[in-house]
Design brief:
heterodimer; A: 222 residues; mainly alpha; MetI-like fold; B: 337 residues; alpha/beta; Rossmann fold; Alpha-Beta Plaits; six-stranded mixed sheet; 14 strands; binds adenosine-5'-diphosphate; binds magnesium ion
Chain lengths: 222, 337
């Protein structure tokens, strides 16, 4: 074994960074889904020729979503520092990273949910209406179950986007693998740390994609 | 049961108004099977969707079982929709739900909570449409005919008084179409449900309906008992439809190529006389002579009927005597040439 290659590799540090990343990812993904799913449903319902067609509401929501999505994450991160501080009592560390992550990912996820709902056959919604169903029944019993494969795919894509965002939030002291890569790999020229973190990130993304694809298949009944 | 009075519906498309339904008045009695036939774009779907207000009429009055549909509020409308079932050309089942879950949806919409009760009703409906063995399958695992049976079971779940069928057999092959039409006929007979059947196929009307309206360009151009409309179509559109159904599209060609000089008559037999030997007796006893150009004998819904198109030969006097004999027996004689 080439010992020199392992020089300065602190596996405890790496393990802690992994846990931090998982924590940031899990926390921000959960919040993103909780906030983004209703937002996506609202976008869909208020859009043209849908159940709650509301051009003004849709227009406003759509612009807000687009603005947030077009903002580079690094800028969002910095702009949000005061707000983050007020929300979680710190703008640093794992906790401080979660609000900007959720802010960045929610509009993205909501848009993907809207697209997934658009894929649902109009006839199915019509058949639900013809039974006398209320809108919330149509959403819960027909739209969401029918769009489930698309929504799971959207969660997978969002989770993977969040992984790269967590790496970036390391630069403002977010912690996690990205933070480790920058502190050791970049600032202290420990290339091996950088390589290990990147490998871990790649493996993580692969695993998430595989899990996501499996779930999509499991929910597809077509 | 269903009364439409001068009902119109227009859509605005790109600043221009399109009249999909123009001042249509129809009266459909309880327990009746009422057909609406017309070419694609004639306004049939729009018209039927005014009945359960999937579309709102622009003008006129829509009454269903004494309820003014256009004046209903949200709750009233949902209550009405529970009493008016609907089935669709493409079935519109939830692909993510099993057969039983699909059928249970209207029950849950109607507020049923207890799973045992829901299961019992679903089992009844599955038996009604002959799908007992497919309870836990997903729609993707069923044939088209089976999917439409699920659609029918779902539409009937809340024991509606009216069933709206929008091209319910148009996506099915002829054999499956027949079995679905037979099922609808049986349901009508057993449950007494009023049915509105939309189709572009006259054969569906012939097999299933009591009365029919023919639509063209948003207007009802002809209306009446199916036997009357079939045997004596008045409007040009109706005539085209009927000929298509009887495979007589090329009647003019037949007349031209046969180089018929004399009179051509259409003889219509309705009811039991369709099977009686009147034609033979008019030949034997009155010397009526003719060549058969086209014809068919069959049933319109449950009424036996037949039509012959004949070129008359021989002297006018014996022609008239023979035809008079036929008229006396209730045969309708019309001259086409
Ligand atoms: N939602 C709609 N918006 C605009 N035009 C429509 C809409 N639905 C139907 N139409 C128009 O109304 C006419 C009748 O359509 P439809 O009722 O679907 O006919 P059919 O069912 O007899 O084929 C057509 O010209 C169609 O283009
Ligand atoms: Mg149609």
């Amino acid at each position: 074994m080439n010992i020199s290659w392992m020089d300065g590799l602190d596996w405890m540090d790496i393990a802690k960074a992994c846990l931090d990343t998982l924590y940031m990812l899990g926390g921000s993904l959960a919040l993103t889904v909780i906030l983004g799913l209703p937002l996506g449903v609202l976008l869909f319902l208020t859009s043209r020729r849908q159940l709650l067609e509301q051009p003004i509401v849709y227009g406003v929501l759509s612009v807000v979503v687009n603005v947030l999505r077009s903002m580079p994450f690094i800028i969002l991160l910095i702009v949000m520092i005061p707000l983050t501080y007020r929300m979680v009592g710190s703008s640093l560390g794992v906790r401080g990273a979660i609000p900007p992550l959720v802010f960045a990912a929610t509009p993205f996820f909501a848009r993907l949910v809207e697209i997934a709902l658009r894929e649902v056959d109009r006839g199915v919604v019509e058949a639900m209406q013809a039974t006398g169903a209320k809108i919330h029944q149509i959403v819960l019993w027909a739209l969401l179950p029918e769009a489930m494969p698309g929504i799971i795919a959207a969660v997978t894509v969002t989770a993977i986007a969040l992984v790269s965002y967590t790496a970036m939030s390391g630069t403002v002291g977010g912690g996690g693998l990205g933070d480790l890569a920058i502190r050791f790999g970049y600032q202290r020229f420990q290339t091996n740390v950088m390589v290990v973190t990147v490998l871990l990130l790649i493996i993580g993304v692969q695993v998430m994609q595989m899990l996501g694809d499996r779930l999509v298949l499991r929910f597809s009944k077509k | 049961m269903i009364h439409l009075d001068s009902v119109s519906k227009s859509y605005v498309v790109g600043g221009q108004s399109v009249d999909a339904v123009k001042k249509v008045s129809l009266h459909i009695g309880p327990g009746e099977i009422y057909g609406i036939v017309g070419h694609s774009g004639a306004g049939k779907s729009t018209l039927v969707r005014l009945i359960n207000r999937l579309e709102s009429a622009s003008a006129g009055k829509v009454m269903v079982d004494g309820v003014d549909v256009r004046s209903l509020d949200g709750d009233g409308l949902r209550a009405l929709r529970q009493r008016v079932g609907m089935i669709f050309q493409h079935f519109n089942l939830l692909s993510s739900r099993t057969v039983a879950q699909n059928i249970a949806i209207p029950l849950r919409v109607a507020g049923w909570k207890e799973q045992a009760r829901i299961d019992a009703r679903v089992a009844e409906l599955l038996a009604l449409v002959g799908l007992e063995d497919h309870r836990d399958k997903y729609p993707a695992q069923l044939s088209g005919g089976q999917k439409q049976r699920v659609g029918i079971a779902r539409a009937l779940a809340n024991r509606p008084q009216v069933l709206l069928c929008d091209e319910a057999t148009s996506a099915l092959d002829p054999q499956t179409t027949k079995s679905i039409l037979a099922l609808l006929k049986r349901i009508n007979a057993e449950l007494g449900i009023t049915m509105v059947v939309i189709t572009h196929e006259m054969d569906v009307v012939r097999m299933l309906c009591d009365r029919v309206a023919v639509m063209d360009g948003g207007n009802v151009v002809e209306e009446g008992d199916v036997t009357k409309v079939f045997l004596h179509p008045e409007h040009h559109t109706t005539q085209l439809f009927v000929r298509e159904a009887e495979h007589l599209e090329d009647l003019e060609e037949v007349l031209a190529s046969a180089r018929i000089k004399g009179r051509v008559a259409r003889l219509t037999f309705v009811g039991q006389e369709a099977y009686a030997p009147y034609l033979a007796s008019s030949v034997r006893e009155y010397g009526l002579d003719f060549t058969i150009l086209a014809g068919n004998v069959g049933k319109i819904k449950d009424t036996p009927c037949g039509q012959l198109i004949v070129a008359l030969l021989g002297e006018t006097a014996s022609q008239e005597a023979g035809l008079e004999h036929l008229r006396k027996q209730g045969v309708t004689v019309e001259f086409l040439q």
